[in-house]
Amino acid sequence: MALLLHVLMLFLLSGGSARVVTDFEHECGGFFAGGKSPTGFSGPQYKQICQTLNIPYYATYYDTDNKIPVYSAYRFEEKINCTRKNNWYIEPQLDDETAGPNMASEGSVKKRGDHQALNKDYKNSGYDRGHLAPVYLARSQSCAHATFTLTNAAPQNSSFNSGQWRVLEAQIANELVNQCLKTYTVLIVTGVVPGTEKLKNRVNVPSHFWTAYCCLDNNNKCQISRGFIGENKNITPQNITVKGLETELAKLYKVSSFEVFHSSTAPKLIEKNYRAVMKPPLLSLMLLHKTHPLTEVNGRY
Ligand SMILES: *[C@@H]1O[C@H](CO)[C@@H](O)[C@H](O)[C@H]1NC(C)=O
Ligand SMILES: *[C@@H]1O[C@H](CO)[C@@H](O)[C@H](O)[C@H]1NC(C)=O
Ligand SMILES: *[C@@H]1O[C@H](CO)[C@@H](O)[C@H](O)[C@H]1NC(C)=O
């Protein structure tokens, strides 16, 4: 009982409009398949951000040491023609916990840059500020504006950004319009793998860009899904299963397993395989209770 109350309290306390949050499954879980985020990492450098520009538009898992995101998660609802903006926002709360709850333009933020990339880091670097949640798949003009935040970007080979990556985004959009939008909720996660180089000795240049989509039915199962991954150069990314992508990512992130979409969202056909390893609800609740205060991250529960 005390345990349940404690969990409840945590949920109540985390309400409100703060953007850097301690539990983005709770605050902006609508951007994750089945409400469950991809695998998290432990360490205080990882921050969970509900990307709001007055209202939430997508969720970003950000690495304040490497000053690039691990991934952004978003919904795709329709293809619209958005105008691209040229000024980029930053996330004031990453450098100052008392800052307001919305992304802001760099000039309006006094304390900035210790825990995130700034525009000058990219200047003359030869790398683009490559979007994770893309402008191209934005579901409204204000949503497109909201993608222009440096916490949603990582150094991307500019010929890749304007070449094969852009081609891939367009192919994925067409595929989703044709196969999924009418029937399913479409959830996408786009991420990067840290590399060995840094811009201005500050911002990590990713070795890989990856993305995956899940066409989710009413029972929270990904009925159609696909994963894509490519090195940070202008070559057509590999088109593989989400399972294949997850195996690849576990290797690259050097973790024992990595889930882009939670195992509970696997379609019925192979659900049996997962059931055996699922924990009973009470046990997961205890795990939640135990891990929540210790880490910003929670893997999954
Ligand atoms: C987007 O713009 C293109 C070219 O300007 C136009 O052909 C197309 O109909 C527009 N689509 C929508 C959904 O407005
Ligand atoms: C990826 O491969 C699948 C299966 O072969 C195919 O249906 C899909 O169109 C491909 N998508 C892209 C974007 O290449
Ligand atoms: C970007 O990728 C191309 C090949 O796709 C390569 O020739 C070029 O050197 C790369 N640029 C950088 C800055 O690494």
UniProtKB/TrEMBL annotation:
Stretch forming the signal peptide: 1-18
Gene Ontology MF terms in the entry: hydrolase activity; metal ion binding; nucleic acid binding
UniProt entry tagged with the keyword Cell inner membrane: no
DNA/RNA non-specific endonuclease/pyrophosphatase/phosphodiesterase domain sequence ranges: 54-268
Keywords carried by this UniProt record: Signal
Superkingdom field: Eukaryota
A Pfam family per the record: Endonuclease_NS
UniProt xrefs under SMART domains: Endonuclease_NS, NUC
Domain ENPP1-3/EXOG-like endonuclease/phosphodiesterase: 57-268
Name of the protein: Endonuclease
